Amino acid sequence: MSYERKIINDPVFGFINIPKGLLYDLVCHPLLQRLTRIRQLGLSSVVYPGAQHTRFQHSLGAYYLMTEAIQHLTAKGNFIFDSEAESVKAAILMHDIGHGPFSHVLEDTIVRGVSHEDISLLLMERINHEMNGQLTLAIQIFKDEYPKRFLHQLVSGQLDMDRLDYLRRDSFYTGVTEGNIGSARIIKMLDVKDDHLVVEEKGIYSIENFLMARRLMYWQVYLHKASVAYERMLIAALLRAKELAAKGTEVFASPALRFFLYNDINRDIFYSRPECLENFIQLDDNDIWTSLKVWCNHPDKVLSTLSAGMVNRRLFKVEISSEPATEERKAELTRQISEMLGVTSEEATYFISTPGIEKNMYDPADDSIDIVYKDGTIKNIAEASDMLNISLLSKKVKKYYLCYIRAHK
């Protein structure tokens, strides 16, 4: 006996309806189910223990918001065919399908020069092939090649359903309540003007709140200094494992992770050798954690120290400043670490990291948020807002982090 829809209970939005057919088939697809084994916030649970939600949950939430948005836009007289509605929902369901475990860490270490957006597209095309072209329209919308441009903005833009869900969801699971945005209100205020998404003037305060919440979530959650330090430790551990593998040393890994440790994969190779993608889709958080647990006992001092630090939460110390660390300071730290751990000064560099992180919360050039007034005039949010902060939000903020292993207590 088959039902016409499935209902999923989501702690953030309540019941989410998934109609039988294309959308339900996508939700059940192994490539989408892989996202149940990848955490949305990577290593943020080192700071916020509640942040255990998955990329799959986020994809469902973004799908739910897309359903709401289509309904409100249609009610305002914007004509959207059923096929377009289904395709834009399919596009948002799959928008994160190319993420690997600890996404940005992998992009910096084992798969160089290939972004998760690139991989998402490859996987969408693969599923489209399996489904005999049912996703062709969804892929056009995703790539912004479809005449109704506003549909693409709903998938990827300043006010896309991806952002509306992750801010709301991440604030829910971390407990950082300031990040909680009024997604329902923002969606009710959306409209389309000249094939461009606009927000009714009544929604201006919700948009201000959204931009401020986004800034707060970035510095308080996504770029929290402890999460940054933890991420740098993972990058160092993977790079060390890769260096040992290149020398022919035996390094434990699952078959999929082993493929990336023992082969040097850049963009050209990734696109020309099918086994790269095959191995990539076998990777999830478990591959990395299992390896780290085994590496704690590896004879290599660098790999075992970094891995034990990850597994037992012995984080690097972090200093944040508006200026990069001086070469003298780095040299002195390298000397101290090499002495403390009994490793060479070259090996000691694995225990120091100096990322510079730059972020602006609103880039009008990127895709402006436009407010539409009753008389039909349109103003950019930066002009329409009477909050000084909005124009300040478009200023790039750069912070320099100095992360290094703590002295033994």
Structure in words:
By secondary structure, the chain is an alpha+beta fold. The protein is 53% helix and 11% strand. The chain contains 22 helices and ten strands. It has helices at 22-28, 30-33, 55-75, 82-94, 103-108, 116-130, 136-142, 149-155, 161-174, 183-189, 204-222, 225-246, 255-262, 267-272, 274-280, 285-295, 301-311, 327-341, 345-348, 364-367, 381-384, 388-393; strands at 5-10, 14-19, 190-193, 196-200, 317-321, 352-353, 356-359, 370-372, 378-380, 397-404. The strands form three sheets. It has a four-stranded mixed β-sheet with strand order 3-4-8-9. Strands 5, 6, 7 and 10 form a four-stranded antiparallel β-sheet that branches. It has a two-stranded antiparallel sheet with strand order 1-2. Strand 3 (190-193) and strand 4 (196-200) form a beta hairpin. The longest helix has 22 residues, at 225-246. The radius of gyration is 23 Å and the shape is globular. The chain starts with a strand and ends in a 5-residue tail after the last strand. The mean pLDDT is 93.
